Amino acid sequence: MAKNTVGVIGGGQLARMMIPPAIELGVDIRVLEEAEGMSAELAATAVGDYRDLDTVLAFAETVDVITFDHEHVPPAILRELVNRGVQVHPGPDALLYAQDKLQMRAKLTELGLPVPDWAAVESAEDLGAFLDDHGGRAVVKTARGGYDGKGVRVVSDAAGADDWFLALAEDGRGGALLVEELVSFQRELAQLIARRPSGQTAVWPVVETVQRDGVCAEVIAPAPGSSERVVEVAAEIARRIADGLGVTGVLAVEMFETTDGRVLVNELAMRPHNSGHWSIEGAVTSQFEQHLRAVLDLPLGAPDARDDWSVMVNILGGPSEGTLQDRYPAALAAHPEAKFHGYGKDPRPGRKVGHVTVTGDDLDDVVYRARAAAAFFEG
Amino acid sequence: MAKNTVGVIGGGQLARMMIPPAIELGVDIRVLEEAEGMSAELAATAVGDYRDLDTVLAFAETVDVITFDHEHVPPAILRELVNRGVQVHPGPDALLYAQDKLQMRAKLTELGLPVPDWAAVESAEDLGAFLDDHGGRAVVKTARGGYDGKGVRVVSDAAGADDWFLALAEDGRGGALLVEELVSFQRELAQLIARRPSGQTAVWPVVETVQRDGVCAEVIAPAPGSSERVVEVAAEIARRIADGLGVTGVLAVEMFETTDGRVLVNELAMRPHNSGHWSIEGAVTSQFEQHLRAVLDLPLGAPDARDDWSVMVNILGGPSEGTLQDRYPAALAAHPEAKFHGYGKDPRPGRKVGHVTVTGDDLDDVVYRARAAAAFFEG
């Protein structure tokens, strides 16, 4: 009988958004959630700590394939799963490069892929030297644990990361920080790709992402006004990373399009990603359906866009009082064409609690309507 | 706080297909299934007999609104729910006309809507008289309990329904059979409409349905080559029925387009319907999302088609060995553009176990591909 049960570690909105395509395809989906009542509650069959080997092993025994809502499962646990014959996608050897930014930068450099100038720095002196070589300003990132702008900081003097160096020293593991040139970019792009264990890949149109305070605010698919070269380069970079790192499932490559026309790799995520939420309505195959197909090693679906334009706007924070649903009567009445997504999370400042997608053939109109519809859920 | 929990009585594929839009909208969905392991298992919070008042009452206490996967809940139970203040959509006064074809025919006739010639017959003599007046052939239907061609029979002599008359007599309830003229139709149409308790309606494009052995086999949206008059008449009929009967939620009106150009109402279903499955991918708002909005009395979404053509082909019976999933590697590889839907049901001859939808701008091509994709799951 065909493998058909996908186990997702982590109960956040990415796991949640895998449930609809699982239901549609007839795939059995089960979730190990961190606590009761999380976003993916409906498919939760276990509650526990993903850093606990026994918890993860017990969950793995109930499914055919393990995949993830996030990249935080410790490598040692992933390796133990693989040693015991569990199908894990993406596997620990690939996931490492999404878990550790220093490893990622080193690997991409080895593969000859375009990245910002970077260095591993272990002291204020190292950092000072990098700053001296790069015009006195740079971006410092913790190698592990950062997301949504956390663990990322622009510094302009050698002492600017002293607290992080101290934390690394106190942590006892030692290790270095990543420092990168401050890239002068005209915009940020994201290229999503899916790859099966057997090697087939599928590439969605490259998109433009708009960040606010380090958090994704909007995504426009495809990235407006892209030259043919940028479209090709973005896809080729994603293919080379997916193949070179042996990624299975969905890979998101966040990129800078620089003011001098280069495309540089910024970050990687090895799972469905905020930059791909537009694909639920906007593509023939959504990133969530594709991820399920990929981790089950099923043939991938067509990633083509269904409309000229798709615009996704995040609902950040949500209503200052009440729930998203309290705003539905007004929002749905004003925007019968918009697709509203709620993640079942309580509103909290800055928290991603939902998103809105609008598709159509007039970009200005689509952007306007997506923003207007999302605005009903804030303030 | 806004009402947000929808309870669905019945755990079949219609309940199953309400789950994805519930997750997307952030609506809490709960299902009372007839037995464990049904299609809508993932959202099942209760297992029991929908003909048992206590079972239904206990389930109703856990939700804000009751709606249905099917029309078989006894009217007495529905009325008791309403008497106790439970929101029930569609309500018993409307649902009656989907439960009892004689009541339906009488009501539509009273509303002046176009229906085939019909009569309530209580004996072979009555039936014979109708046959004499209608060219010697007619369609006999049991008033209650029929679906997918069951409870429907073409007769050409007065004794042709004697077994059903006997069954009615033995049942002790008495009652009549419905007899209708055998309509000479060029094709069958279905008009879906959604209506909120507060009265707003939304009408999808009228579709053509193709039946085989009394079971829906294919749906083409919109119905090809329809005259403007037919499109308007179909929508107007659906509006008058929805308003006239006080339907809440989705209503499907099955119709005949006769060889002499008339549109006659055949059957009603007060729930999402096989003729609307195309809307999952093919419309801005699917029938399942719209049903949730309607029963929660939320503003309806746009029912517009997203592509020139959407074709849905049912998977009837399924593979003679194994599961639908066993056929996925070949089917998905051949048809990356097709959307596959499995209902989590074991294959069985004639059983609806899934469907495939393809959309596009070339009707012949779309029909060909939808049929070809579905064919992978049969035989």
From TrEMBL, chains A, B:
The reaction(s) catalysed by this protein are: 5-amino-1-(5-phospho-beta-D-ribosyl)imidazole + hydrogencarbonate + ATP = 5-carboxyamino-1-(5-phospho-D-ribosyl)imidazole + ADP + phosphate + 2 H(+)
Residues that, per the record, bind ATP: 101, 141, 180-183, 188, 266-267
As for family, the record states:
Belongs to the PurK/PurT family.
Q: What does this protein do?
A: Catalyzes the ATP-dependent conversion of 5-aminoimidazole ribonucleotide (AIR) and HCO(3)(-) to N5-carboxyaminoimidazole ribonucleotide (N5-CAIR). Catalyzes the ATP-dependent conversion of 5-aminoimidazole ribonucleotide (AIR) and HCO(3)- to N5-carboxyaminoimidazole ribonucleotide (N5-CAIR).
By its UniProt entry, which Pfam families does this protein fall under?
Answer: ATP-grasp, PurK_C, RS_preATP-grasp-like
- The superkingdom of the source organism is Bacteria
Where does the ATP-grasp domain lie? 105-296
Q: What is this protein called?
A: N5-carboxyaminoimidazole ribonucleotide synthase
Could you list this entry's UniProt keywords, alphabetically sorted: ATP-binding, Ligase, Nucleotide-binding, Purine biosynthesis
Write down any Gene Ontology CC term.
cytosol
Q: Which gene encodes it?
A: purK
Q: Which SUPFAM superfamilies match?
A: Glutathione synthetase ATP-binding domain-like, PreATP-grasp domain, Rudiment single hybrid motif
Biological process according to GO: 'de novo' IMP biosynthetic process
EC no. given is 6.3.4.18
Q: Does the keyword Chloroplast apply?
A: no
Lineage of producing organism: Bacteria, Bacillati, Actinomycetota, Actinomycetes, Micrococcales
Per the record, the pathway is: Purine metabolism; IMP biosynthesis via de novo pathway; 5-amino-1-(5-phospho-D-ribosyl)imidazole-4-carboxylate from 5-amino-1-(5-phospho-D-ribosyl)imidazole (N5-CAIR route): step 1/2
Subunit details: Homodimer.
What's a Gene Ontology MF term here? phosphoribosylaminoimidazole carboxylase activity
